[in-house]
Design brief:
The complex is a heterodimer of chains A (221) and B (394).
Chain A: H1 18-31, E1 35-41, E2 45-50, H2 55-64, E3 70-78, E4 113-121, E5 126-134, E6 140-142, H3 151-162, E7 165-167, H4 193-197, H5 214-220
Parallel strand pairs in A: 2-5, 6-7
Antiparallel strand pairs in A: 1-2, 3-4, 4-5
Chain B: H1 6-30, E1 34-39, E2 51-57, E3 60-67, H2 75-79, H3 84-91, H4 99-114, H5 120-148, H6 153-173, E4 182-183, E5 186-187, H7 195-218, H8 221-227, H9 235-240, H10 246-249, H11 257-260, H12 282-306, E6 325-333, E7 336-344, E8 352-356, H13 358-363, H14 366-369, H15 375-385, H16 389-393
Antiparallel strand pairs in B: 1-2, 2-3, 4-5, 6-7, 7-8
The chains are: A alpha/beta (221), B alpha+beta (394).
Chain lengths: 221, 394
């Protein structure tokens, strides 16, 4: 946070994040072969991917042995690009070709969907994002609601939004959606219905802003 | 500080717990029949529409479960069809009483992915507006608290004084509730002329307001006996449920993201105290919020004194494309930790945004917390947890 305004022309120095590297090493030794991959962004964050079958154990060990006692959130990601794009297609044209290859994010992944949880260690003030793959067919994973009580509602939300089954969860009722709701809205292949019933008005090129180059001034200011 | 002295609190706590135990025994002996009580969806204790289903045995709650979803707007899905600048419009409406504070972590996450840092003046103004929205948000809580306990006066004071803060936010951003003022790389505009003097005058008024509320409400015997020793959350439970903000600090956890993380904002340039309370009861949670409002006015004063000059916008391209990557940024919002996990695919809009809102975690503790309390205490406990429905349902 320098007093100077940000400049992009200086090449950033190579930062070695010793604290997080040390942490990564201790995570590897504590969790053993449950760890599939560790990704560190120096000075920013750390990602860990664990084996599906040792998910609950890994989370418990992180809490008990490594002091990650604060549960921040749990959610999932669907890595398949949406077949509907951004819902901005012209309905009169044939649908465009889209790249639907699944690419995973930091710390890799082998499946379409991943569950991830964020835990924080207050003593060292470091958070960690732990990811885990869930099988494509009948996605299910062990529940961690008995490790972190707060995961209970987060798993319920993830269950209804992604259709991931949390084995051992006490009560997987819907939180938001009606009981008879069909589909899992945050999956990428679930269409955003508002964009289906009424075409995106931005299909027509918007006219230029009044005043023309106001944006230019803003950018150079 | 006399209010934190623990003698009275402990005694009341013990007598409350003893009373609960005696009642439970009595209910067991008399074999009372249970009933189900439905509170809400519309209730003054809920900022929005939340229904609470409570199973009662006599006057005690056996089991209670909030039922959310009345205000679910699907923001996480909507972000996937919006561009980055458009998302701020959505996230403004998550915690509608402190809107500006919702924009900041999202913008910071996008900036982190882009490798852009806002100029220092923009960072300072962001922090000022952030703290102003905290004051606007929490001052309403302090007034509303009285209403839920049957005291009408505080809410008038709160609405009167919050108006000054909203006017300030409006003068700077043009929006009273939804500023939509934050941009990737800085701010839309600089502060208007005369903002600094006016803000300082308003901060003085708000400090008076805090003193007033402290005398009127926190010193009140009824208020104390209805909140002391009630709804106790121990430290370990608070941590594993992911409570944050004042609710966490009221359980004795000294954790404030304004101080405890390195973030491109101006909090590390000013001195402020992070208030904690050892009790973890309803009173502690309310008391922490009162102290934090006062502390926030002092933060704003310091920021106004040290406001650096310079531009408020960094160089960013006109069409914003965010490089591929993942970023997590969270800030200490009025309600607690609010964060965004942004996944980008180098596109105009985000690939996935996980919104971690404070109230969702804070309210998820209620099934645990409400077990065994008396019916009137449900209201004070919910009030002291302080949630906003937009922040639960997103």
């Amino acid at each position: 946070m320098s007093q100077l305004s940000s400049t992009t022309d200086t090449t950033p120095p190579v930062i070695v994040d010793e604290i997080r590297q040390k942490l990564a090493a201790s995570i590897r030794t504590t969790l053993g072969d449950a760890v599939l991959d560790v990704f560190i962004k120096p000075g920013d964050d750390i990602w860990v991917r664990v084996r599906t079958e040792s998910w609950r154990d890994a989370v418990q060990k992180l809490r008990d042995a490594l002091g990650f006692e604060y549960f921040c959130f749990l959610s999932a990601i669907d890595w398949m690009p949406s077949p509907y794009g951004r819902g901005e297609d012209d309905p009169t044209e044939p649908p465009p070709e889209r790249d639907t290859t699944i690419r995973s994010g930091y710390a890799g992944g082998e499946t379409r969907m991943q569950v991830f949880v964020r835990l924080v260690n207050f003593a060292s003030r470091i958070g960690v994002t732990v990811k885990v793959d869930v099988a494509d067919e009948m996605p299910s994973i062990a529940s961690i609601a008995d490790v972190f009580g707060g995961a209970n509602w987060h798993e319920r939300e993830t269950h209804e939004m992604f259709g991931i089954d949390f084995v051992g969860h006490p009560d997987l009722r819907n939180i938001y959606l009606p009981i008879d709701f069909e589909g899992h809205p945050l999956r990428k292949d679930f269409p955003l219905l508002a964009r289906m019933v009424k075409p995106w008005p931005g299909i027509v090129d918007v006219e230029p802003l009044p005043g023309g180059d106001v944006g230019e001034d803003e950018a150079s200011a | 500080m006399t209010l934190t002295s623990d003698r009275l609190g402990d005694r009341q706590k013990l007598s409350y717990i003893a009373g609960q135990a005696a009642d439970a025994r009595l209910n067991l002996e008399l074999e009372t029949e249970g009933m189900t009580l439905n509170i809400g969806p519309q209730h003054p204790a809920t900022h929005g529409t939340l229904r609470i289903v409570a199973r009662l045995d006599g006057e005690q709650v056996v089991w209670a479960e909030p039922s959310c979803g009345y205000m679910h707007r699907g923001y996480e899905k909507l972000t996937e069809v919006r561009t980055y600048p458009q998302v701020t419009t959505l996230v403004n409406r998550i915690d509608w009483l402190g809107s500006f504070a919702n924009e900041v972590p999202f913008i910071l996450a996008a900036e982190k992915l882009m490798g852009v840092e806002a100029p220092s003046r923009a960072q300072w103004i962001r922090t000022i507006l952030f703290e102003l929205s905290r004051i606007a948000n929490v001052s309403l809580f302090l007034g509303d608290l009285g209403v839920q306990l049957g005291a009408i006066t505080p809410v008038f004071l709160a609405f009167r004084d919050r108006e000054y803060v909203l006017n300030l936010i409006e003068s700077a951003t043009g929006g009273r509730f939804h500023p939509n003022f934050d941009r990737i790389g800085g701010l839309k505009d600089d502060l208007p002329a005369g903002f600094i003097d006016e803000t300082k005058a308003v901060m003085k008024k708000l400090r008076n307001f805090c003193d007033e509320i402290e005398r009127l409400l926190f010193g009140n015997e009824i208020f104390q006996s209805r909140t002391r020793g009630i709804g106790i959350i121990p430290r370990g439970i608070a941590l594993q449920y992911g409570l944050s903000g004042p609710n966490l600090r009221a359980s004795g956890v000294d954790w404030d993201l304004r101080r405890d993380q390195d973030i491109a904002m101006a909090w590390n340039k000013v001195n402020f105290k992070v208030w904690t309370h050892p009790d973890g009861d309803s009173f502690a949670r309310c008391w922490i919020r009162l102290q934090e409002t006062r502390e926030a006015t002092l933060i704003v004063d310091q920021l106004l004194d040290g406001l650096p000059s310079g531009p408020v916008m960094a160089k960013v391209p006109k069409i914003i494309k965010v490089p591929e990557g993942e970023a997590w940024v969270s800030t200490e919002n009025p309600l607690g930790e609010m964060g965004y996990y942004v996944v980008s695919r180098g596109d105009l809009g985000p690939f996935r945004v996980k919104i971690r809102s404070a109230s969702f975690n804070n309210i998820s503790i209620t099934p645990w917390l409400l077990r065994g309390v008396y019916v009137p205490d449900i209201i004070t406990i919910l009030a002291s947890l302080y949630f906003i429905l937009g922040d639960i349902d997103r």
